[in-house]
Each structure stands twice: as structure tokens, then as C-alpha cells.
Amino acid sequence: MSPESTGQNEHYLTVYRRGFRTWRGNRPFWAGLFTILGGLPIAYFPYANMHLGNMTIAMSTTAGAGSLIIGILLITLGFTMWFHHIVRVFAGVAAILLALISIPVANIGGFIIGFLFALLGGALSIAWAPAEAKSVPASEGPEAQLSMDDAPGAPEHRQAPHGTGEAPRRPMLFKAAAEADGGGHRAG
Fold it and tell me: Is 78 exposed, middle or buried (0-12, 13-18, 19+ CB in 10 A)?
């Protein structure tokens, strides 16, 4: 083995950290985290008892059940953003709507803290876009593609651009591009 190979001697925490970093980068992680952090105070404050010296302040109101439902739904939407990032737009819109509903229902949205976190999480979820997939060059594709040189009436010899000695790029015809996709649209 050469001293340059680093894969086998890495600490297990480094391996887990890199794995988590890759997992986090493939989904709206921060959106889910902020949405979960927004749901916690909304669900907690209506059932909390605060003690100031000998005096107990109970935050319990008639809206306790509504606050609990909104808080649990926000936490669920946060986990949905993490584990089912395909529905991130739906989860983001739902988080924003629940954050707005929490203002009159859940003690001013968990004393504004939960409202702001849920609103930020929903907005981040809507704004997040997955990374572009790396495309395979045409010469490495599984199917041979028809180029302009293969078309009838194409010139026999083409000059390399600026005398660089590299092969000229050949644009694909429409028929070859449709065959490369399997003849279908990307969405279908």
C-alpha cells in the first residue's frame, strides 16, 4: 500500500461526519431543522408551568389542543423535508400556513419564536432546489448517436477549430436526441 491512500486509516467519526455531510447536502436540511425548532415551542408553551419564586404561572389556555396539533404537524413536516424531499414545496407551504395559524391559536405563535422558526423553515424548503445531475458525455453514452457527419450530404472532412488538432464538436440531430431519451419527455 502506498502512504498516499487515506481511505483505510480514517477515524470512524470522520467517516460518519462525511456521510452525514453528504446526506445533509442532498435534502433541505436547514429547512427541516428550522421547522422542527419552530414546532417545539408552539407545542410546549401552552403546557408549560413557569415558576417565579413561589408563584407558578400556568400558560394553559383553551387553545392547548390546537397548539399541540400545530406543533406536532410542524415537527412532522420538518422530518418530511428531511426524509421525503420530493414533497418539499408542499411541506414548505404547509409549514408557512401552520406558522401563520399559530399566531392566533398558539400563544402568539409560541411567543413569536416558534412562528419565526417555522416561517423561515417553510421559506427555505420552498426555495431549496436539488443539485443538477452530472451528465454523461455523448461519446460515453450506451447508445451510438447520429451526428451531423453521419447525415446524408454531410461534408467529408472538417477542419478543427483554430488548428488545435482536436476533433470538431458535432451537434446531434433531433432524431438522435429523441432516441437518447427513449423517445419520451423528461416528465413522462
Answer: buried
> How many of the other CB atoms lie within 10 Å of CB of 126?
18
Any idea of the CA torsion for 23, 29, 30, 34, to the nearest 10 degrees? -140
Measured from the Cβ of residue 179, the count of other Cβ atoms closer than 10 Å reads: 15
Nearest Cα neighbor of 130 from 164, 64, 81, 63 is 81
Say how far apart CA 32 and CA 23 lie, in whole Å. Answer: 13
pLDDT digits (tens, 9 = 90+) for 78-131: 999 999 989 999 999 999 999 999 998 887 878 899 999 999 999 999 999 887
Is-above-0.90 flag for pTM?
Answer: no
Q: Closest by alpha carbon to 99, among 126, 67, 143, 61?
A: 67
DSSP track, 90-111: HHHHHHHHHHHHHHHHTHHHHH
